[in-house]
TrEMBL record, chain A:
Protein name, UniProt field: Manganese/zinc/iron transport system permease protein
Main localization (coarse): membrane
Pfam families with a match to the protein in the record: ABC-3
A GO cellular component annotation in the UniProt record: ATP-binding cassette (ABC) transporter complex
Membrane topology designation: Multi-pass membrane protein
Subcellular location: Cell membrane
Family: Belongs to the ABC-3 integral membrane protein family.
GO biological process: response to zinc ion; transmembrane transport
TrEMBL record, chain B:
Main location: membrane
Membrane topology term: Multi-pass membrane protein
Organism annotation: Anoxybacillus pushchinoensis
GO biological process: cellular response to iron ion; response to zinc ion; transmembrane transport
Function according to Swiss-Prot or TrEMBL: This protein is probably a component of a manganese permease, a binding protein-dependent, ATP-driven transport system.
One Gene Ontology cellular component: ATP-binding cassette (ABC) transporter complex
Protein name: Manganese transport system membrane protein MntC
Keywords: Cell membrane, Membrane, Transmembrane, Transmembrane helix, Transport
TrEMBL record, chain C:
The protein, known as: Manganese/zinc/iron transport system ATP-binding protein
Pfam families linked to this entry: ABC_tran
Species, as recorded: Anoxybacillus pushchinoensis
Domain ABC transporter intervals: 4-236
Gene3D superfamilies: P-loop containing nucleotide triphosphate hydrolases
A molecular function (GO) term: ATP hydrolysis activity
Record keywords: ATP-binding, Nucleotide-binding, Transport
SUPFAM superfamilies named in the record: P-loop containing nucleoside triphosphate hydrolases
Family: Belongs to the ABC transporter superfamily.
Top-rank taxon: Bacteria
Length: 289, 302, 246
């Protein structure tokens, strides 16, 4: 398959994964936790490398998962002990990210991962890093990784749709119904960590945040149903990826940056034209017809 | 003493001043519950800096400052607009603006690197900060601006205090709230822009809030908190710069690690508000209650 | 055996005691009003009973067993502003959430659950709004949706936090009707309430609360001038107090 198609497929998978997970983050008012996890996951990747001496696959996923959950846990802990929640997020992730950067630069000669790469990603290199089985190439590693994470995400959302929904809407009610709210919170954070690390290598930390939050927030303007919102946000993620890729190749700039910008453009357009919650409609309603 | 040593001393001085200024200003950011907005401003500064570079054609702190201030202001306005006019909540609005602006910054950065020979521009240093790379003139600018910021903060201290604590009351007694908010915003943007070079985009927000948060544990008075936050900031700045010089590690992350260590120490061991003293106090309180209950029960039996 | 017993419950935030040694026992099929000034710990009492906030001391018994074992028997109607009404869902869906305990974890709602949810919506007069997005409902309608959700839960004991706040007269009437219906079906209902004027008309029992239990018992005998004065620290004027007590 050609180079372009692999890149588009990667970006599409990132878009779907982030759209699905991001919807729940936006609804639970935890958007900034994705910012936090996307940065602190860097530490997980470095840590995994120091333990297993490889920069890919399962060890990376586990490292990211652990640090992602650690971030969530620490934020929660500080908040419980009286630190205001925005500051708790700010302190935890910057510290973990800083430790990650220091470790990378200390072992720079041995870790083939520079921080710039981690922040901005390098989706253009994805098609060359292929997975080989029995000497035959079966496609880029990133695509397999993203596909695997997508399977997990879809499985959890289908399996625990009802539980995710009620604990996002009214967690106290969910507790009285005996729904394991805390477990669900950590499962969701686990999904977020996996999604982040799988997308990380190809699109970088900041773009992951853009892909998680912006399409979901845009979908929130278009629909009043949770199921539609999930699909809509995945679709917007894919759309943004394609537009971003085309734009980036046309102007020869960073693909991941361009994808982030195109999520912003789609959001901006939706802000005005979305049928129910768009500003044009709202203002037309207000002014006497 | 040779030139190298003088340069090193200058770097230390400027890091101390930067830490002092950002700690003091960060106190107000923290108390206004705008920690994440500080983060958004730091990220949003990147496209402004790039546009300034594209327009002016070379590295210039003054133009970078203007560019960053403009885009920081636009970003804040966008966040406020989204929150006010849609059903999207503040956290998501901040996330949207932060990531899209930063994405735009990256796009412009790659454009500059490819088209304008920007690798020599030193713009890349803004991502992670490199105190050691500060040149003599950078250090001069940094020192002068931070001193000005510290003076402004001290002069307007009383006013900042009242608008942070009770905005409505301040308005009621005729304090020019929006003007002062503007001044405070200007200070935040300034310290972010100046600090970017030293600690980088990602960690700038931590330089604002972490020292302030640490200071909060030691005192109930804003005056002391501001001063202490400044001291903590300065200490972290100097320690970070020092280790950075001897270990060849980027300055930004080290400064933040020192600041976080100070925070953790305060969080655990501060006399009144610290976790340990809280636990001890709760234990004592519980014992008292148990004794009271026992006496109550016995009294009933008698 | 009384369906609901609270035994020596003490709750503290940091170093401040919010509830001190609260004990009471509610007989079956009674409507209980929880009355007290702002900051008396009314909402805290409910939240601590439901384990949302840790108790420093004390137990809650539901039909003789600790609450933790009897969760499914207790329904909770939170204050209306405790959830985000912009959540993408409709009224029927919210009521259906009340069935989740019966449906069981990880399973989908069945047809009969949807039918029950529809019936519950009908009971509060909200059937025509079943498919309406919840942000487009008025305050009173949102409160009725919450009540329908509690009905769908089919619990034996209900805890309601300020259900009458910010609702229109029609909704207030509908809520009272519903409370009485629950009573006749042998349910026990506790309601946090702040309108002293209506206490006598609405409730069989009252719990006068101000960090401690000031008085608990049948409304007739308990809701007296002295007890009210004690609860509100003498802030209710003589005139209005006599008017309330009647």
């Amino acid at each position: 398959m050609s180079y372009t198609i692999w890149i588009l497929l990667t970006a599409t998978l990132v878009g779907i994964n982030c759209g699905l997970v991001g919807t729940f983050l936006v609804l639970r008012k935890m958007s900034m936790l994705s910012d936090a996890i996307s940065h602190s996951v860097l530490l997980g990747i470095v840590g995994a490398y120091m333990v297993s001496h490889q920069l890919q696959g399962v060890s990376m996923l586990i490292g990211a998962l652990l640090v992602g959950l650690l971030t969530t846990f620490l934020v929660q802990l500080l908040h419980q002990k009286g630190v205001q929640s925005d500051a708790a997020i700010g302190v935890v992730f910057t510290c973990l990210f800083a430790i990650g950067v220091v470790l990378i630069s200390l072992f720079a000669d041995r870790v083939h991962l520079d921080v710039e790469h981690a922040l901005m990603g390098e989706i253009a290199f994805v098609p060359w890093d292929v997975l080989e089985v029995g000497g035959r190439s079966i496609g880029p590693k990133a695509v397999w990784l993203l596909g695997f994470v997508l399977a997990i995400n879809i499985f959890v959302i289908v399996f625990a749709y009802k539980e995710l929904k009620i604990s996002s809407f009214d967690s106290e009610m969910a507790i009285t119904l005996g729904i394991p709210v805390v477990l669900i919170h950590y499962v969701l954070m686990g999904m977020l960590s996996l999604t982040t690390v799988a997308s990380f290598d190809s699109v970088g930390a900041i773009l992951v945040v853009a892909m998680l939050i912006v399409p979901s927030a845009t979908a929130y303007l278009w629909t009043d149903r949770l199921s539609t919102m999930l699909i809509c946000s995945a679709f917007i993620g894919v759309l943004a990826s394609v537009i971003g890729y085309v734009g980036a190749t046309a102007f020869n700039v960073s693909i991941s940056g361009a994808i982030a910008v195109s999520t912003g453009v789609i959001f901006f357009v939706s802000l005005w034209i979305a049928p129910k919650h768009g500003l044009l409609r709202k203002w037309m309603k207000k002014s006497p017809a | 003493m040779n030139n190298m040593d003088i340069n090193v001393q200058w770097v230390f001085t400027s890091m101390a001043l930067l830490g002092l200024a950002s700690g003091m200003i960060g106190t107000f950011v923290l108390l206004k519950k705008q920690s994440l907005i500080g983060d958004a401003m730091a990220h949003a500064a990147l496209p402004g800096i790039c546009i300034a570079f594209l327009l002016y054609g070379q590295k210039s702190l003054l133009f970078f400052f203007i560019g960053a201030a403009c885009s920081g202001y636009v970003a804040t306005a966008c966040i406020q607009f989204i929150v006010k006019h849609t059903r999207i909540k503040e956290d998501a609005a901040i996330g949207i603006v932060l990531s899209v602006f930063f994405g735009l910054g990256i796009v412009l950065l790659t454009w500059i690197n490819q088209h304008e020979g920007g690798n020599q521009s030193g713009i890349n240093d803004f991502l992670f900060g490199k105190a050691a790379s500060l040149t003599g003139s950078d250090v001069n600018v940094l020192a002068v601006t931070t001193i000005i910021m510290i003076i402004i903060t001290s002069v307007f201290f009383k006013e900042f205090k009242i608008i942070t604590f009770d905005r409505a009351f301040a308005q009621g007694i005729g304090v020019p709230v929006s003007l002062l908010n503007g001044v405070l915003m200007f200070l935040i943007v300034s310290v972010v822009v100046v600090g970017l070079q030293a600690v980088g985009v990602v960690l700038m927000s931590a330089l604002l809030i972490t020292p302030a948060l640490a200071a909060r544990y030691w005192t109930e008075k804003l005056e002391w908190m501001t001063l202490l936050a400044g001291v903590f900031g300065a200490l972290s700045g100097v320690a970070g710069a020092y280790v950075s010089l001897i270990a060849y590690v980027p300055t930004g992350p080290l400064v933040i690690i020192f600041a976080t260590a100070l925070f953790l120490f305060s969080f655990l061991f501060a006399p009144k508000r610290g976790l340990c003293s809280k636990i001890i106090r709760r234990h004592v309180e519980r014992k008292k209650l148990r004794v009271k209950q026992l006496m109550y029960e016995r009294g009933e039996q008698l | 055996m009384n369906p609901l017993v609270v035994d020596q419950m003490t709750v503290a935030y940091d170093r401040q005691l919010v509830l001190e040694d609260v004990s009471f026992s509610v007989p079956e099929g009674k409507l209980v009003g929880i009355i007290g000034p702002n900051g008396a710990g009314k909402s805290t009492l409910m939240k601590a009973m439901l384990n949302f906030i840790p108790r420093m001391h004390g137990n809650v018994f539901v039909y003789g067993q600790p609450y933790e074992k009897q969760r499914h028997l207790v329904g909770y109607v939170p204050q209306r502003n405790s959830v985000d009404w912009d959540f993408p869902t409709n009224a029927l869906d919210v009521v259906l959430m009340g069935r989740y305990g019966h449906i069981g974890l990880w399973k989908r709602p069945r047809k009969e659950d949807v039918e029950i949810a529809m019936q519950c919506l009908d009971k509060v007069g909200m059937l025509p709004y079943a498919k309406r997005q919840i942000s487009q409902l008025s305050g009173g309608q949102q409160q009725r949706v919450f009540l329908a959700r509690a009905l769908a839960q089919d619990a034996s004991i209900y805890l309601m936090d300020e259900p009458f706040v910010g609702v229109d007269a029609a909704t207030e009437k509908a809520i009272i009707q519903l409370l009485n219906e629950l009573k006749t079906r042998g349910k026990t209902v506790l309601v946090v309430h702040h309108d002293l004027q209506t206490v006598r008309d609405y409730f069989d029992y009252v719990l006068l609360l101000n960090k401690r239990v000031i008085a608990f018992g049948e409304t007739e005998r308990t809701f007296t001038y002295d007890h009210i004065q004690n609860t509100y620290g003498g802030k209710v004027t003589f005139l209005s107090a006599t008017h309330i007590v009647g």
